[in-house]
Design brief:
This is Syntaxin-51-like isoform X2. The protein is built from 5 helices and no strands. By secondary structure, the chain is mostly helical. The model has no long low-confidence stretch (mean pLDDT 81).
């Protein structure tokens, strides 16, 4: 697909709008109850949109690297667009990290404070099925 300078900006603006939508969804996600299927669906939707945003940014980057052969825009404008893409990519990475951090908080709340997988495993050594179920209930009760 041949991109003009205007169509590149249109695609960029759509990607920026998607990034804003994702930011709003992450804010909503932080307000939801930390467990349950609705929260999982919401997180999955956010991850999907972050992936779509990453794909769009890769496409815009690819088009931008091919534009100089046509020379439709100045070098100053080319640098501005590279900076815009870089900033949006950084924002996407920060949102992905924020989502992963909220998911790890949920995991921590299930395992208990500062519980490490190795610690949890060592607590189950020597337990039969009944003992493991009892330990699970104890952890869940808090």
């Amino acid at each position: 697909m041949a991109y003009s300078a205007d169509s590149w900006m249109k695609e960029y603006n759509e990607a920026a709008k998607l990034a804003d939508d994702i930011g709003g969804m992450i804010s909503e996600h932080d307000k939801l109850v930390s467990t349950g299927p609705e929260n999982q669906r919401h997180a999955s939707s956010i991850r999907r949109k972050i992936t779509i945003l990453g794909t769009r940014l890769d496409s815009l980057q690819s088009v931008l690297t091919k534009m100089p052969s046509n020379r439709p825009i100045s070098e100053k404008e080319m640098n501005r667009r590279r900076d815009m893409l870089s900033n949006l990519r950084t924002k996407k990475d920060q949102m992905a990290s924020a989502l992963n951090m909220s998911n790890s908080r949920n995991r921590d709340s299930l395992l208990g404070p500062d519980a490490k997988p190795a610690d949890a495993m060592s607590r189950t050594v020597g337990l039969d099925n009944r003992g493991i179920v009892g330990l699970q209930r104890q952890i869940m009760k808090g």
